[in-house]
Amino acid sequence: MKTFEEAKTRLELLEQSHLLRFWSELSEEEKRTFLAELSQLNVEELQDHCRGATKAAFGQQTSPLDGLHQEMEPVPPEFIGGIKRSDQNTLVDWENEGILQISQNKVAVLLLAGGQGTRLGVPYPKGMYNVGLPSQKTLYHIQAQRIRKVQELAAGKCGSKCTVPWYIMTSEFTLDPTEKFFRENHHFGLEPSNVVMFEQRMIPAVGFDGKLFLQERGKIAMAPDGNGGLYRALLDNLILEDMERRGVEYLHVYCVDNILVKMADPVFIGFCVRKGADCGAKVVEKAYPEEPVGVVCRVGGVFQVVEYSEILPETAKLRGPAGELVYSAGNICNHFFTRDFLRSVTQQFQGDLKQHVALKKVPYLDEDGNLVKPSKPNGIKMEKYVFDVFQFSKKFVVFEVLREEEFSPLKNADGAALDTPTTARRSLLAQHYHWALAAGATFLDHQGAPIPLKPRTVQDDEPPAVCEISPLVSYFGEGLDHLLKDKAITCPFILDEVAAEKLKN
Ligand code: UTP
After folding, report:
1. CA of 68 relative to ligand 1 center, distance in Å
2. Which residues, other chains included, contact 373 with Cβ-Cβ below 8 Å and sequence gap of 6+?
């Protein structure tokens, strides 16, 4: 679509000519930009996309999938390892394996950060969010420091300096602000060349009538293509080639919003490597049958994540002999992939990934050119999910971890019942409080009175003592004994590198 006439003819054929409604009001520059955008749309794909989206939205599953329960089976025990399922020696063994792989520069982390974060509702990328910790660190800051610490631990144990590259998938919404934020913060002490940002593709949002929306007079409303857009983005941006050049063989892929994420987790990496897996998923035990998380299971012999809306309530409620839920492997978007597996997915399967329908509130220009912000969903976004590749794995494994130690996502603004800045902050502070207690610390309030102990619960309330531990001091609770044993700490307390030095003396 190089000229207006061409664009007009094509869009008329596609029944999308309303997109040119404000053409005469655009400046020459805006016309050029809009034509360039229109010319990138593949006409056939677009037609299929609009038809597919409306059909899928109208036929969308609102009830469990027929017959699914007959084909579902839980992950067989031989495919599962986990913190509660394995003895201490085995866990240490896996951890040592992971540390060894990290020390040999074979491990990278890959962050999925292209989402729009509409539920949280801030006008900047979620990784830049500050949940109100005493240190005021943002999610990106915490994650960067975890990478620095795990590199240091591996170097310390194996005697050689090493790098865990950080790949960050962004989208049109998040790339520029994320780059700027990292630059302004000096990449949080990481070597900039080891932080690799790349962009996923965008696809148009579609109205229930099959029509595209205008977001501006010369701009179509687009949205990122879901976190499963990763596989196409890896291809588009030659990321696997970059990994190969660096000698990276194993990837830990995770979401931006989990404040407890254990990046490049040596235990998980070591477990997957020892099992010879090409693909792995970390899971937490589902809390209750109706909990809205997908479960990792097998369907017709193939591993996949079944969404909570797809399972029959009686299947979700099934319990085993010890009273545990049969379908308990709650997916937390925390995955292991070998580079070879990613290569085969991107080359052979990425076009086959299932499209999921998401009904979204899409802001649009009405006929008079006024911006409308709908209060309920008015459009369809077709998304791919990162986990839909499990089916292609030749050796898939599952690793179960403790929710209170490793999973607390930031999804919603404060005021919602779950997964808010408050719950994320509490989870982190509760974890650090218990690490400090385990290391032998006691806590005093600002008047010097002892703060009574509080036992650990899965539902983290505000911990009685505020003690935040910098990832640069401890990656996952290690190395605190010699700092905190028999120490009485006045709260609130930030255990950063400076405080750690003082405690040593
Ligand atoms: P969510 O499904 O929670 O979506 O993403 P979101 O966009 O962050 O938030 P809402 O639904 O609009 O409120 C889970 C993870 O997948 C990433 C997100 O950045 C987050 O880390 N993601 C999501 C992408 O990388 N790309 C996408 O297109 C969508």
Report:
1. 27
2. 361, 363
- Measured from the CB, is residue 253 less than 6 Å from ligand 1? no
> Looking at the chain, which residues constitute the CATH 2.10.10.100 domain(s)?
429-504
386 lines ligand 1 (CB under 6 A): no
Is the Cβ atom of 112 under 6 angstroms away from ligand 1? Answer: yes
- φ, ψ of residue 210 in degrees (nearest 5): 85, 5
Domain 429-504 architecture? Ribbon (2.10)
Residue type, position 440, single letter: G
CATH architecture of 81-279+336-382: Alpha-Beta Complex (3.90)
Q: 24 CA to middle of ligand 1, Å?
A: 36
What are residue 95's phi and psi, to 5 degrees?
-60, -45
d(CA 405, CA 424): 12
Lookup: tokens for 388: 């839909």
Q: Is 205's C-beta closer than 6 angstroms to any atom of ligand 1?
A: no
Residues 6+ apart with CB under 8 A from 497: 470, 472, 473
What are 457-466's pLDDT values in tens digits?
Answer: 766 678 999 9
Compute the distance between CA of residue 392 and CA of residue 341 in angstroms, rounded to an integer.
9
Instruction: Retrieve residue 86's tokens.
Output: 């394995």
Decide: 118 in ligand 1 pocket, CB within 6 A: yes
User: pLDDT tens digits for 252-261?
Assistant: 999 999 999 9
State whether the beta carbon of 409 lies less than 6 angstroms from ligand 1: no
Dist. CA 351–CA 232, nearest whole Å: 8
Q: What is the pTM of this model?
A: 0.94
The rounded Å distance from CA 119 to ligand 1 centre is 10
Q: Is the CB of 210 under 6 A from ligand 1?
A: no
Pinpoint the residues of the chain covered by CATH 3.90.550.10: 81-279+336-382
Residue 227 alpha carbon to ligand 1 centre in Å: 6
Give the residues across from 255 on adjacent strands: 112
Residue 294 near ligand 1, beta carbon < 6 Å: no
Please tell me the total number of residues recorded for the chain in this structure.
505
Which DSSP helix (H) or strand (E) runs through 68? helix 68-71
DSSP category for residue 416? B
C-alpha Rg value of the chain to the nearest Å: 24
Q: What is the pLDDT of residues 456-503, one digit of tens each?
A: 776 667 899 999 999 999 999 999 999 999 999 999 999 999 999 999
pLDDT at 458: 61
pLDDT at position 457 is: 73
